[in-house]
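Hey, resending since the last one bounced:
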Amino acid sequence: MANVESKETFRTRLVRLVGGGAVDELVKRINDLEAEVQENRNLNVRVAELVDVISELLLPIATQDQARIAAAIAKFESSL
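The structure tokens again:
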């Protein structure tokens, strides 16, 4: 693993020497994009959780099952 890291370091240094500041800008942009992708993944998980909660609420509300409604609301509140 250390050998791979040293190759990456060498490769990065070589590219920076050849490419100049543009490489640093691209690396920063890639890191920013990766962070934004992760944020989108987190939001997608949250939306999926909310859809699950809404689904859990709709059936009990349709059947007027107060115990299940209260349980679904409690589960939602604990996830916040």
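The mean pLDDT is 81.

Sorry for the duplicate.
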